[in-house]
């Protein structure tokens, strides 16, 4: 029971698209009270910028003092030159994301463990080939297109800018060609070495007696193999530079040897979160220690320098370009196909163990086979972006005599055919959707929740709420279908292009427009991305456009691909957990961690860590509130091994009713969290959901609160638009969708329940 000195600390975590410190804590001014400037903990402040308490938390018995704090992490994903250029590595980020979308491995199932290990190894190999392809495409532009062809003595290209005597100067053309590619490789190595320093001590070991089963986000740990993977990717990037010019025999042999060593290394490195580190990976970690990695990097740099020296004068035609581009692309295609085939039995075995008994709307996307789709999109984006840059540069140079690798023609055909196919599918789906919505609007049917929440509202407001509910529900239900359609469209286009290339068949006349569309699409893709990066650097306020992608993708630690932006979750979650534990040292304090949107995932993982490491008497003073959360329709379905449905149910049981979820049916990014299969029966909303004991099943009918919300299980369904203004709270007219959860009158009641005060 709460005593007279009880207080509540509400620790808020924001979601994607960032926020300000003032809006996070709901005050006109805010001030830092902890953190290192990168991860900031803020509180409301008075006119003299002194930290102040939050508004009293009203309960049926009395008002409880409340302290509001907010954790700001948006500075890790947006702002500045370095963070803006991370957008150029988006294919690498997608490949790394594919690792976290793999199906879970059942316990004590050797076939499933073997399939999982092979899938992770193939994914790391595909990631290495993506790096090699990226470096090769950079070298095609700088070494082949610019240095070898455009700057050739007597060439008309850039004749007014570069005189012939400079073109014939010893070492000029090899340096111009190899230096940009070498700098790109070193830049990738530098980016992959950046990490966020954690301003918190290591988490303590789980308390004996706590449930031994895995909680949500248990696998979100730093991979000790990341330095080795980074070195292998750097070695592979440097080695491929020696193959493009086709220099001496020993240089080709040395380059191929380094590439093979890098490929074997990424294949054999085992995953510490899934495989057993003391088996196959133990000797490999010793063999690829710090000294070995430095020797390999030194040999790779020497190889590139020797290639530049031996290529003086640089030939006007580089014979190794086509072979390297097509060989890398072919190997990447084969690995992607093998990866997709291996994930099929892995997903089937996981289905039998984890989600065969779950309702259809809770099962993973594509039956747990979403990871190959994401990898294919990453591979085709990587290849398409490189071809787009080369096509754009050739147009800027303005010379018709410049030749690109023959493999780029199928790429243009691929993107043209894919764009046309996607347009047809989009028009078809749009027409079906329009007809479906028209029929629903004509019948006037309302979603069951909306019909109860707005039963007494004016007809115009009911119609507004109904349209917003339908639109949001459509987006939540079909977002993964868009990703699947993109993957299928690109895969079909790739299949046609590969078949034509293998048969050495040129595109027929009727496919000429597709190639033209592909050239335009690739050039537009490269120009648009470059412009977005430039605008984000020039105007920091626009960097949030790129930051949205970074918020979602950079949450995940480096696993499959090391050349991705640093994972902010490895910093935010320990610091958030430490801050909560610090407040809990005061026995009269109750801590409620709240998360909005993507921040709800951070909050859930932080609370699960607290449930594992705190003694029972302290766990009873921890609560959780999620608002606008995609923790049901998105994260468990896209990442079934990280936040599985079963783990969320277990965490709900650990909290014993102190997890409250604020939901709006009009929110396209958030929805139900702890309930499903809702329906209206006898003017009451019923459904299935999590129970306080950690099980799932039918729930008691929903109850109505004073603010007009419906509480079914732990979900608080909020009327949107809000029914009426509430004294003392900010009024938000109209449909609020994904925002203004803190201003809703139901917020304080959810916090009070999560704190164990109601």
UniProtKB/TrEMBL annotation:
<dbReference type="Pfam" id="PF01764">
    <property type="entry name" value="Lipase_3"/>
</dbReference>
<feature type="transmembrane region" description="Helical">
    <location>
        <begin position="178"/>
        <end position="198"/>
    </location>
</feature>
<keyword id="KW-1133">Transmembrane helix</keyword>
<feature type="transmembrane region" description="Helical">
    <location>
        <begin position="291"/>
        <end position="311"/>
    </location>
</feature>
<keyword id="KW-0472">Membrane</keyword>
<feature type="transmembrane region" description="Helical">
    <location>
        <begin position="122"/>
        <end position="140"/>
    </location>
</feature>
<keyword id="KW-0812">Transmembrane</keyword>
<dbReference type="InterPro" id="IPR002921">
    <property type="entry name" value="Fungal_lipase-type"/>
</dbReference>
<feature type="transmembrane region" description="Helical">
    <location>
        <begin position="413"/>
        <end position="435"/>
    </location>
</feature>
<feature type="transmembrane region" description="Helical">
    <location>
        <begin position="146"/>
        <end position="166"/>
    </location>
</feature>
<feature type="domain" description="Fungal lipase-type">
    <location>
        <begin position="585"/>
        <end position="631"/>
    </location>
</feature>
<feature type="transmembrane region" description="Helical">
    <location>
        <begin position="514"/>
        <end position="534"/>
    </location>
</feature>
<feature type="transmembrane region" description="Helical">
    <location>
        <begin position="482"/>
        <end position="502"/>
    </location>
</feature>
<dbReference type="InterPro" id="IPR029058">
    <property type="entry name" value="AB_hydrolase_fold"/>
</dbReference>
<feature type="transmembrane region" description="Helical">
    <location>
        <begin position="331"/>
        <end position="350"/>
    </location>
</feature>
<protein>
    <submittedName>
        <fullName>Lipase family protein</fullName>
    </submittedName>
</protein>
<feature type="transmembrane region" description="Helical">
    <location>
        <begin position="371"/>
        <end position="393"/>
    </location>
</feature>
<feature type="transmembrane region" description="Helical">
    <location>
        <begin position="249"/>
        <end position="270"/>
    </location>
</feature>
């Amino acid at each position: 029971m709460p005593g007279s000195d009880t207080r509540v600390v509400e620790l808020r975590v924001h979601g994607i698209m960032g926020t300000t410190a003032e809006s996070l804590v709901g005050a006109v001014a805010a001030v830092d009270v902890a953190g290192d400037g990168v991860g900031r903990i803020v509180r409301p402040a008075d006119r003299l910028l002194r930290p102040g308490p939050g508004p009293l938390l009203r309960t049926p018995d009395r008002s409880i003092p409340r302290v509001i704090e907010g954790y700001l992490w948006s500075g890790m994903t947006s702002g500045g030159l370095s963070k803006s250029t991370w957008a150029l590595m988006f294919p690498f980020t997608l490949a790394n994301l594919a690792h976290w979308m793999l199906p879970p491995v059942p316990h004590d199932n050797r076939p499933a463990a073997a399939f999982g290990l092979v899938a992770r190894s193939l994914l790391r190999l595909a990631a290495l080939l993506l790096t090699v392809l990226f470096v090769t495409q950079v070298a095609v532009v700088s070494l082949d297109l610019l240095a070898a062809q455009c700057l050739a003595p007597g060439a008309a290209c850039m004749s007014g800018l570069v005189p012939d005597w400079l073109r014939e100067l010893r070492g000029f053309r090899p340096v111009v060609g190899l230096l940009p590619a070498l700098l790109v490789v070193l830049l990738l190595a530098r980016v992959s070495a950046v990490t966020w320093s954690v301003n918190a001590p290591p988490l303590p070991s789980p308390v004996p007696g706590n449930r031994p089963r895995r909680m949500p986000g248990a696998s979100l740990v730093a991979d000790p193999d990341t330095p080795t993977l980074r070195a292998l990717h750097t070695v592979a990037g440097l080695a491929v530079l020696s193959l493009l010019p086709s220099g001496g025999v020993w240089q080709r042999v040395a380059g191929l040897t380094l590439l093979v060593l890098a490929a074997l290394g990424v294949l054999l490195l085992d995953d510490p979160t899934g495989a057993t580190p003391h088996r196959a990976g133990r000797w490999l970690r010793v063999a690829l220690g710090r000294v070995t990695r430095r020797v390999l990097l030194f040999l790779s740099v020497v190889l590139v320098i020797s290639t530049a020296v031996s290529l003086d004068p640089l030939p006007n035609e580089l014979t190794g370009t086509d072979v390297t581009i097509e060989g890398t692309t072919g190997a990447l295609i084969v690995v992607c196909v093998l990866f997709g085939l291996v994930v099929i039995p892995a997903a089937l075995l996981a289905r039998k163990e984890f989600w065969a008994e779950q309702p259809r709307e809770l099962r993973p996307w594509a039956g747990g086979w979403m990871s190959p789709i994401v990898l294919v999109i990453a591979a085709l984006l990587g290849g398409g972006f490189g071809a787009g840059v080369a096509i754009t540069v050739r147009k800027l140079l303005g010379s018709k005599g410049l030749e690109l690798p023959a493999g780029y023609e199928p790429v243009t055909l691929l993107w043209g055919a894919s764009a046309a196919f996607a347009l047809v599918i989009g028009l078809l789906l749009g027409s079906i959707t329009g007809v479906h919505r028209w029929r629903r609007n004509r019948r006037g049917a309302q979603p069951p929740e909306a019909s109860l929440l707005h039963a007494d509202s004016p007809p115009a407001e009911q119609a507004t709420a109904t349209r917003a509910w339908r639109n949001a529900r459509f987006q939540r239900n079909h977002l993964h279908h868009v990703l699947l359609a993109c993957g299928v469209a690109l895969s079909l286009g790739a299949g046609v292009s590969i078949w034509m290339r293998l048969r050495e068949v040129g595109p027929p006349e009727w496919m000429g427009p597709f190639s033209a569309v592909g050239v335009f699409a690739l050039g537009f893709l490269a120009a648009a991305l470059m412009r977005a990066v430039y605008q984000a650097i020039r105007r920091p306020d626009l960097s949030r456009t790129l930051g949205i992608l970074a918020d979602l993708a950079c949450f995940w630690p480096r696993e499959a691909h090391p050349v991705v932006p640093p994972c902010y979750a490895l910093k935010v979650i320990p610091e958030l957990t430490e801050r909560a534990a610090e407040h809990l040292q005061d026995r009269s304090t109750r801590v409620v961690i709240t998360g909005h949107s993507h921040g709800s995932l951070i909050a859930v993982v932080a609370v699960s860590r607290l449930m594992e490491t705190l003694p029972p008497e302290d766990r009873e003073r921890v609560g959780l509130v999620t608002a606008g959360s995609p923790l049901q329709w998105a994260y468990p379905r896209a990442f079934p091994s990280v936040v599985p449905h079963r783990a969320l149910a277990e965490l709900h049981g650990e909290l014993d009713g102190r997890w409250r979820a604020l939901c709006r049916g009009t929110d396209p990014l958030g929805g139900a969290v702890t309930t499903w299969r809702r329906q209206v029966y006898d003017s009451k909303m019923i459904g299935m959901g999590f129970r306080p004991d950690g099980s799932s099943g039918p729930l008691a009918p929903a109850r109505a609160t004073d603010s007009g919300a419906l509480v079914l299980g732990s979900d608080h369904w909020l009327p949107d638009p809000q029914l009426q203004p509430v004294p003392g709270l900010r009024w938000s007219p109209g449909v609020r969708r994904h925002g203004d959860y803190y201003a809703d009158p139901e917020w304080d009641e959810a916090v009070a329940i999560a704190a164990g005060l109601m």
